[in-house]
Each structure stands twice: as structure tokens, then as C-alpha cells.
## 1
Amino acid sequence: MKHADFITFHGWHIIEALPQDGSARSYIRLEKNGKTALLMDCGPLSGISYITRLTDFIRIGGWLRDINLRAPEIYEADEAANIAIIEDFGGTSLKAAMAQGHDKKDLYTKAAAILKRFEDTPCPLALNSFWESPMRRARQRLVDWYIPAVRGEANPAGLRESYLGIWDDIEKQLPAPAEGFMHVDFHVENLMLLPGGDIGIIDFQEALSGPPAYDLGNLLEDMRADVPDDIQTTLLHGRDEGFMGWYRVLTTQFHMRLLGQCIRWAVHDNKPQYMKFMPRLENYVISALESPVLAPLKSWCREEGLDFSPLQGFNPDKIRPLIAEDAV
């Protein structure tokens, strides 16, 4: 069933299309009898490299509501078409709320409490493992996309393997992490401030099973927003050495992956708007490389001439031929 037919069949009409993010998902705000909702299109079920499924959104959202967290209710669904009409959490993300003057510490504390709920609540769902996921594999995007853009030349043989080998060596020095539910895209634009002060959670359909430090790093070192140092310190207080080791490793991998991802969005997907986040990501990496746990990575970057200074003269057309055919 096409969007228009699905919307009309269920008695809704279109108000506006919402801006699309970096995924294949899209949203349209609807109205019926004075009530709003969202048409969520999770994207194609075939023909693209990274597929998200409405069925995952439904089952994961159900579990989140079961543990008394706010996930959108499903009003209507067409699983074959990968579309649904869902509860509208409005347009006030935590990022927007903070820009409007809401207390940052209060909002970040509430968001971190959601992550603690994930961490402390066994999840019965069959979720894919972070360690075997496309997201984990995508940590190589620093090499696949960012380095050719910085150097203006194709990568030499073995560079990717060298980079991944450094990370493998670092991780072997850490204790095995605790694992549980991972949202995997937990940031201030996927958290909505609801009337009454509750926080609504969206875009969780790609959830995985893995280390909780990943989501906390995503929240506290977000490419979209600067988190005050005192808030970071407070929300990391009491974490043991093993957690903090994985926090630094996974968060830095995340930043480096996103440096490559921003290039990929611009070159491969014609979405240059994400390039504005590059300076913040580069600064995160520069700071992280001072951590003792990342000393081998700092040496590798020095040997490869990577200083994470601002990218100059970015031209997608010149970079495109430099990207390896097997880049992810």
C-alpha cells in the first residue's frame, strides 16, 4: 500500500514532511480529528546496504514500554510495506529544549537515567550482537573515507588492516565488558521532551546487544552538541576502570567512524550538511588521544601523519575516485 493510500485508508491527512536524517527512514506529520501522528517509513526492505525493519521497531518499542519508558505507540502498521502510523512526540528534542532554556543538567541526568535502566534491566529480546554488526564493521570508515579525503590520494595496501589491528590490540588489554540493551543512536535529537517532563525515545529500531559504555559515550560526546564538562564528570562518576576503558575506546571509535561517515554522506549520499560536525569530532579525537589507553593509536596516527586538523578544500568529486571499491 502506498503512503497516500495508507494514510487515507486510516482517515488521516498530511500536515508536513519532516526533515530526513542520515538514514533511509522518513517521517510525515499527520492529523485526524485534532490529533497528530507520524507516518514512519522505515525505508526499503531490499536493495540498500543497511535495512531497518518496522517489525524491530514494534517489538523493541513494546519492551521499552514494558519497562516503563516512553516509546511511541503504534496506531496502524503495514509490515510488508515497512510503514506505520505512530504516536507523535512533538518537535521538542532535548537539543531544542536546551536551546529554549531548559536546564541542561536536569535533561542530561534524565537521559543518563534511561541508559541506567537499560543497563540494569535484562532484555529478553533476541538482538543482534554489536560485535558482529555492520556498525562495528563501520569503525573502518576513518580509513575508508576520511584518510583519502585528508591526503588527496587512495589508501596504500594494508592501511585498513593496520588500523583495525591497533584497535584489536587495545581492546585485548581491557577486561571483558558487561553487555545489555544498546539503543546505538542515543543522542539529544533522538530524545524528545514530552509534556510533564518525561523523555520520549525514538529511532531505536537498530538496537543491539553490547556494552553500555557505547550509548553513554554517544550521549556525552555528541557530534551535534557540546556537553559541559561538569555534566560529563557527574554522569561518569563512580564508574570503574574497566567501564571507563571501554567508554574511551568505543567513544573514540565512534568519533573516528563518524569522521569517515560525514565524508561518506557528502560523497556517496549527497548529504554535505553533516560536514559541519567535523570540527567537533576532530576535537574529540585530539582530546581522546591523550588517554593512556589509546597510546598505541596515538602513535599510529602520528606515524600516518594524522593530526585531525580541519579538512581543507573539500571537493566530493575529487575524493570519489580515491575511495576503495570495498569501502563500507
## 2
Amino acid sequence: MKHISLSYKIFTCFAYAFIAAIMLITLMVFMHIIAIALSAAGPAGANIVGLVPIDFTTESIRQAIGDPMIHRTFFNSLGRLFLGVAFNIVMMISVAYPLSKDNSRFPMRNFYAMIVLITMLFSGGLVPLYLWIKQLNLLDTVWSLVLPNGVPVFLCIVLMNFFKQIPADIEDAAYIDGASHFTTMVMIDIPLAKPAFATVTLFAIINHWNSWFDGLIYMKSPSLYPYATYLRMLIERMDRIQSIEDIENLINIGQRPLMMAYVIIGIIPIAVVYPFLQKHVKSGLMLGGVKG
């Protein structure tokens, strides 16, 4: 039996304790958000709500769900999510698969890999990007939110490194049987890369769902905002009273409970998707980070 050193045992205990502490803090924050959303305006405004609601009420949840803009922006985000993630996957495969081959199979591999990696360090800037989107007449369209984020380089590297783990003998056998590169990719590499696809898909979903700044730049009407952008607009609106309705909400519901209600609604999609993908995320990240 292999001997385990004392230092390794101490490090393992420390690692588990650290992870448990992070999990506990995250859970407490989430419980605090729910407690504020389900508390009355007085206790929430006085900042005395902890992990349990005070003067339990669901008025803030009902108010948030009844907001007509929340339905429009929520579906805007869902549309961006499905279109953006699908586009991301196609582009990531197109980049990661050829770059996963060595120089003997792809002679220009190092050159193209350098170009891809440079985009992680440098960008053209916000103003040129906006002018480019405007020149293409993509303002106020979902494509202005999808195309600039079409090739997430970090996720391409994860997928590329996973493709590298697939034995070359399997592909050689397919080539001998007459399969093309495209057939080999579709029939062999992609089915074997399910853990990696679960990983990059989850990260792509989170990136699209949480992104708010691009919606603020490229969308002129609030009805076209994704949900995260609308949530950011609500934060600014609640910081300054603009109408009688704002005063009534502040008195009857409270600013903090209403804000937390919107936050909870925004968390729901990620909370629904994550359990179905999380079992693949660990193996996808480990195998995708073995070598570059």
C-alpha cells in the first residue's frame, strides 16, 4: 500500500476545509437574498434581516413577476441564450478541432494558434466594435449580442485540449476506412467529447445570461434589453425616485426586497441548467487542461 505523507494529509484537510467554507459562504449569501426578498419593507430597509425572513410576505415576488418588462426581457435573454450558445458551439468546434492536430497534420497550426491566443490579450476596443456593429446595421438586433462573443477563446482552448486526448489511432482507423476529416470529427471526436461540451456549454450559458453591458450599448429601447441589462437599469432606477409608482413601491414593498426578487428570478435559469451539466464539468475541465 502506497504511503501517504503527513504533509499531504494536512494539505488535503486544508483543501476540504477551504472548499467547505466557500460552499457555506455561498449558501449563506443565497439564503440572505431569499430572506430579504420574503421580508417586509421595514426590516429589510433597516438591514436587520439575516438568513430568515422577518414579517414574511411574498409581495415583492408578486410585484416582480407582474412586471410586464420582466417577461419581455426574460424571453429576450432566452432567445439570445439559445442562439448564442448554438453559435458558440459551432465556432468553437471550427476553431478547436483543427488546432488540436499536430504540425504534421495541420502545417499552419502554430501560426493560427498564435492568432487565436493574441485575441485573449488584445482587442480592437469598444468604439471600433460599436462602429463595426453599427456599420453592419446590427444595432437593436440579437446578432449584436451574439456575433462579438462568437468565439470564446478560453473555451476553445479547453475543447482543443480535450480533442488532443483522443488517441490518433482511432482517427487513423477511420481514415483507412475512407472517412473524411469532417466525418471523423462528427462521428468520432464530437461524441467522445461530451464532458468537454458540457463544460464549455455551461460556461457559454453563464456568459450570455450574465452579460449586461453589451445590451446597454447596442440596444436603444429597454424592451429589447436582455434580462441582465434590465436588472442593471432597475438598480439605477431604484437609486433615484422618478415617479409616484416608485414611491408606492418603496413604501409598500421596499427597495431591497423588490431588488432581491428580481435577482432570484435571474438566478432560476442557471439553477435549472447546472444540475444537468455539473457531473460532466469536473472531468471536462481536468481533461481539457492537461496540455496546451
## 3
Amino acid sequence: MKKSRLLVSSFAALSLVTVSACVTDPNTGERKVSRTAIGGGAGALAGLLIGGLIGGGTGRILGAGIGGIAGGAIGYTMDKQIRELKESTAGSGVDITPTDNGQAILVNLPEGVTFDVGSYTLRPEFRNTLDQIAQSMNQYPNSLIDVYGHTDSTGSDAYNQTLSENRASTVANYLTMRGVAPSRIRSQGFGETMPVADNMTDDGRRRNRRVEIKIVPISQEQVQAARQQGQ
């Protein structure tokens, strides 16, 4: 019974924040979610969002030792970081977009600019771009970082899994070498299991061969919730 009441309360809180966080785009008239409003309501949903966004949230937040972003400023901070990342990586082939319903930033590194085919050694010409990404992470320290490796379906499952893990580790280790705290970073390989395009076409396979960096800003409310859960 207690669990049922908790779920009902959680969904009610989520509904309240979702409704109150909607704004109207003045250019299109479209209703969309405001990241700033979501940030302001982060305290009520901290337990839900931490688990949903980053996995093992309490331990990671406490281990990273970050202070968090003031709730009302989290949307502004995300928008600013996205804009600066797009400017610093322009022309590199890297794609920067919001993800997780505006809760995080996704940095997509296509294989063609990051690694040679079948390799997990960074291409030398890409290191300057990854330096810019690391610099952004150091400039905005109140976030956790997930690095995910993906492949197309060519080759065996085992080969693709190992390649994806090695590529994710390579990127994560490089970010650490450039000063990003290792306690903020987690890497994981998914092999061919999470395609974003059709593996039956050359273009689809090219799009599926990628490394993704997910930057998850953490609010002060989430840090406080993690500390309370960790007691």
C-alpha cells in the first residue's frame, strides 16, 4: 500500500512539473517544455530523475563531489553550454543536441571523424575537437558524464561489443587526461544493440558507428537528495 501511494505521489508530482514547465514558443506558437522550469522543480523529482537519467545516481553524485546548479539556473546553464559547444566544434562533424526530454546534452561523435574503421585509437586530427569538449566539461563542472560506444551490425556480436567498449573507454580516458575528473565519467559499450538508423544501408551503418557523450547537469536539489539517501 505504501509503495502504491508513493507511485501515485510521484506521478502526480511529475504531472505537476510537466504542466507548469510548458511554455509557448513565440515564433511557432508550439507548446514545449522549459528546461528552466524543470530545474526549478527538480527538488520534488530528484529521486526519480537521478535514477532515470544516470543510473546509480546517489553513489555517482556523492562520489563526484559536485555542488550542483541552482534549480532555476539549470536550463539557462544547459542552453549556454550547448551554444558554446556548437560554436567550438563547428565544422568538425560533431552533433550537439538536448536529450532525455531536455534533461541532458548529447554529444554525438561519428566514427568517420573520431576513429578509423575497426580502430579504437583516436584520429590525431580529432584531438583538438575533443580538447574543446573537455574544456567545456571543466568550465561546467556540475554535471555527470556518460560515454557510450556503438557499432553497426557488421561483424560478430562479440567483436562489435568489444570495439564499442574500447572506443568508449578511449574517449573517456582522453577526457580524463584533459583534466575532467574521472569520478564524473562512466563509459559503456553497447555494440550493435542500439542502432539509430537502418543497418541495411551504407548511410545507416555509418550513422550507427558512433560514440555518444551524455552530459547530465546536476541540480543542488539532486545533490541534497543524494546526500539524504546516502545517510
